[in-house]
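S., here's the first fold you wanted:
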Amino acid sequence: MAFRSFLVRIFTAPSYTSTVLIAISLLSSSNLLSQSQEHLLISQSIEVEDVELGGMSDDLLLSLEGAFRVRPNRRFIGMTWRLWAYKMIRPEALKKSLDRRSLKNKEPGGLRYGVRELFGEPPSFYDESELFRTSSKMTQILNQEGHLQAHVEVYPDSSHMSGWGAVFNVRLGERWTIDSISWNTKTSGLPLNAIKSSTLLQVGDPLSMNSLQQERNRISRLAGGLGYATFNEGFIKFSLDTIHRHAGVNIEVILRGQHIEGTATNIPHRSMKIGSILFDQSDMTRPLRSSLLQHLVTLEEGLGFDPAKFESSYRRLTMVSALKGVEIKKDFPINSGDELGTVDVTIEMHDSPRYNAALEFDMTRADTRYGPLGKFTWSDRNVSRRGDVIAITLSASIASTQPFSYSSSSIVPNSGEFGFLGSYRTIGLPPKRLGTLPKSTSPHTEWIIQAAKESRPEYTSSSFDYIHRIDWVENAARKSKINIDILHVSFVKLDISNEFEEWLDSEDDELLKQRFSDYALSGSRIGWTSLVGAEGSNVGLGIEWSGVMTKTFSPLLGLEVADDGGVLIGNVPIAKFARIDGAWVIKKDIRNRPD
């Protein structure tokens, strides 16, 4: 009886109505949450409310788009092909395929694995938690760019038929600017005027954490260039005062001194200078010459401590083939009795194995012929203790339509080729002394000799090449480099069979005839390459010529002069030409998904 009266009280009009409404509300909210997790994420967009405050720059918009944690499925010609491929392979079928491969000790692979895991893309759903994290990250980015009152909200766009879109509503608020800049260098020991003279921070500029980080890097590099070896970015602090200010920030740049362990005091940093430079080659079987080491190392005794010169010295030394390892040790400070501390530098070097030999076998293909190729290479990484390298390569190959078919009933024409390649590369521009050359130019000289002979059923070809090349860096900041082939001599001589010559005549093709004709050149080439712009674009220019002034130097070179005035190399006339070529490669970042 009591239970019945309890039910009657529940289902009275006011109580029943409120209970039903609460139940419907709970069911509706839980259903909406489950629907949001089941809808595909179709798009993501950013809308800015307070455009009248200055709007948003393209760079800032790109930064906000980079905060997206969830990406919609990629489309091509309006179709989500990767999602379709992912769903096409059932997980059960893929698991069975991978289990079979695992039993055979094979790595994951196969058609199903490639379609679903490599090409396919799992579905991207409208995930409220991930999108909320994205909005929080956007707010953080806006705060770092001076929008301290920025707020970002995300809401769904259900107007799409195949899923939902995510719309990020951005309220920028007023962007804070720099009201004043003060410097606190009391305990640092750094010269204030030298540090602040080229500051990147200016009164009235918008507040930006990126600008503060760039200023931190600038101060650290400048202090290192002034010889303050113990100073780094960790001693730089920015104090921002935003109390009782309307969109204005007071910045205090604090440069701290060194902390002494066990005490609460800081001591000023001291400017350092390079003391003695010692080259330790005790572990090397064939030490390098001191003139070479002095050219490679950009550090100089008595000058200020510059981290950039330590870095460049290490980089230049490690580029020498004779060295396997380089360690630059610094012993500081030593009290020299003046305001400068002295750093003694020891450069410890370990050499690579001097000789190297490699034997290579491969199957090569030429037209319809194929066959084995053998190659032997020998090199000496430290010929005369100048960091010079000599390398010699011998190669031989044979090719046929049916390799190794030499029976009396089946004689197959074969082609054979023998080759020789020798090169010698050294640091410097001989005969000019290395000490007279600027260290920043990184000059090199190389001599290359190449000869080959090819025997085919149709013809026999003999070729020879000689190159004397020099190169140096014209501008290290732009990686501008100049290459000059002082002398390039090339010679190709063909001995054509009568049958093949008759076939060439019957074809009546001038280009084909030139392809199978003798050829010789004697000339030079000048090339220049350089980076252009901050995004890595590069430009290159080359000028090449042959046959210029060869008649004048023919007596000196022992070359024969024909009756028509042409110069001959082995009865082959030297080609006369001049050619200019150039290239301009433009690199530009294209807005695209990082994956």
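And the second, which I think is the more interesting of the pair:
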Amino acid sequence: DGDTPLRIGRFIDGQVIDKLVFNSGVISVAHAELWSDNGKINIKDTKSSNGTFVNHIRLSPAGSESIPHQLKDGDIVQLGVDHQDGKQKIHKYVKFTIEMGRESQAATNDFNSSSHPSSSSDLTAYFDTSASAHSTSNYDEEENKRGEDMQDEDKLRPRGD
């Protein structure tokens, strides 16, 4: 049998954290599980409301547990779908890419080291662990772009006078 699953879900204040959590309203409290079995990585949706997707394909209907799905190098996993709460808050999905069987990079690429003033190959001083623990993508950049797009759409929409 496989390893103990890594449970994935939504962050709740005051909860003991024994799983990978995200602070997003489209992630269910118990959303999905990841585990390895005989060297293969698997994922399944655990009855989430807004879905678990692999390469844009939903694993199961809302509220239904999916069968295990084997992940491969390059697969894109998405948890939930964007949802706008009226005109107030936009709840964002979480998306990440699976990388397996790749050699780790021993040194910094020239374009990375030349873009940073220190040109140091030791990047540990530049990681903000609190931020990196909460961010798996260019989430803020995408959110800002979506906000700009929505403002542009509002400007183009005809107004009733």
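Why I say that: Helices lie at 110-115, 129-134, 139-156. Confidence is low (pLDDT under 50) at residues 118-139.

Talk tomorrow,
H.
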